[in-house]
Design a protein that fits this description.
With 200 residues, the protein is α/β, with parallel strands linked by helices. Helices cover 44% and strands 20% of the residues. Helix 4 runs parallel beside helix 9.
């Protein structure tokens, strides 16, 4: 039995931190896992910038409320869920993801959580498990599932390469060039076809 594991940001919804950077006019917040493979380092960098500018969870959530899924994402996800189980495995946080999951008709998501002070300041974060995407697909495999995985960033490569089939989706030229063994697609139709073929 198959489970397809999808990244969230850059695959189904726009990058939250890029949207927030544009809304606040703070270009430093545009850095994502496409740019920085070390997630702990990236989050420490983000939290320091939030503190410097006096921004907290509420301001981020206000921007997230304006974000819509990528064009065609919901239809792709609906079709995919009709042929296989799907879990979204994301390094985002439950405090960010909930309104986006509502817009996608509540798919299952495994993600992390923020540490937030009473005043709303983001002071830290808690990862669900170390190396969460890779660890999750290995755990699913250990209970009898074949996994198919797709994502766009450095932090997706572990689950992609550990799966029976894995695909890059709307990734960067550098990540694609550095991983020539991983098929890369730009449209939902292409990705859906590749997933279907890998299940044959």
């Amino acid at each position: 039995m198959y489970i397809t594991c999808l990244d969230l940001e850059g695959v189904l919804v726009p990058e939250i931190w890029i949207a927030f950077a544009e809304a606040t006019g703070i270009p430093e917040l545009k850095k994502t896992t496409r740019d920085e493979p070390d997630y702990d380092k990236l989050m420490a960098y983000r939290i320091a910038i939030l503190k410097e500018h006096g921004l907290g969870l509420k301001e981020i959530q206000d921007v997230i409320a304006t974000i819509e899924p990528m064009e065609g994402a919901k239809e792709f996800l609906d079709e995919l869920r009709s042929i296989t189980q799907v879990i979204i495995i994301s390094d985002t946080f439950k405090e960010f993801a909930t309104p986006l999951m509502k817009k996608l008709d509540w798919p299952t998501i495994f993600c992390n959580s923020l540490v937030v002070s009473d005043s709303g300041e983001v002071t830290g974060f808690k990862m669900r498990v170390e190396n969460s995407k890779y660890s999750t697909v290995r755990a699913l495999q250990s209970i009898g599932y074949d996994t198919i995985a797709s994502g766009d960033s450095y932090n997706d490569l572990g689950m992609i390469k550990a799966s029976k089939a894995g695909f890059l989706f709307r990734s960067t030229e550098k990540i694609i060039a550095d991983n020539p063994d991983v098929p890369a697609y730009d449209t939902y139709d292409e990705l859906l076809d590749a997933i279907r073929q890998s299940m044959v």
